[in-house]
Task: structure prediction
Amino acid sequence: MALVNISSPHTTRGSGAGSVMLHVILATIPGFLALTWQFGGGVAINVILAGLTALASEALVLRLRGRPVMFYLRDLSALLTGILLGLALPPFVPWWVTITGTAFAVIVAKQLYGGLGYNLFNPAMVGYVVLLISFPVQMTAWLPPEGLGRSAELGLGDAFSAIFTGQVLSGETVDAFTMATPLDTLRIYAESLTEEELFALPVFGEFAGRGWWIVNLGFLAGGIYLWQRGYITWHTPAGLIGALAVLSLLFHANDADRFASPLVHLFGGATMLGAFFIATDPVSCATSNRGRLLFGIGVGVITFVIRTWGSYPDAIAFGVLLMNLAAPLLDHYTIPRTYGHVRTKREVEAEAAPQAQASTESGGSGA
Result:
């Protein structure tokens, strides 16, 4: 009987970069639909504009570098970067803001490092932070969610007009419709209002944040899909969500009037989008399971600190970028055991180093 000798790895399904990116894009659909439902058609326009800009920017750089354009575009990594950035932007942000941030994310944060697999930082979050620092007014002008204010009256035509002209079809400016997000409201009034007075404000509604909790549930559903299908592990999301929940619970229990509850931190901002779709980026995150857990915890701690004492209401992007810097260090100190060994490679090397040095010294003295 003939035996077929097939070398590893052994796989029975397509799991290339394009397949993985496609499933991540599909997993954003529940959150995208929730965002569109609560904040209008501007979300869809931002996502489409950012996606097209990302593809065009990637194609331009690839052509300049002499690389095959369609071969690299088919991995869908540029498209995913544009989609994630588009989902993070306010629904009526001007068109030039979206194009600027997306082009910077792809050209500078990704291609300047060498392309997919070489970038040190998460490209979408680099683009978001650049926009947040450069255009703080445009980046904090969110519409009221569904059922609150006049935003429910605005259609897709109004969103298109607002994004490309700065006015809705009636001639009113975007400023007439925008309001602060729950986390921004918390940052402004935490020192002056009690918890009861704060949550009586319309932006909070009956839960963590009117409309925002629905959006977070959408991204949570998509994240669970990715985890169940094996495209991400539970370590990074669990570390981020767990650290944020524990810290907010401890501080809230000590002073409820000053510190927000875990519900607000988990469902009042972009926590679920960050936990399942941003922090889990396989290139800029740690690679070992212990490293991913520590990575997520670090993002959660940084997010809580900036949200509570910093100047920015939602700090997921800053937490991710700062922990991107720490990812190589986490990988170094969380090297997993080699298969069949009871100790890690680092432990074996550390034990062998003194013996090798002694052997070299004895050999040198004998000569």
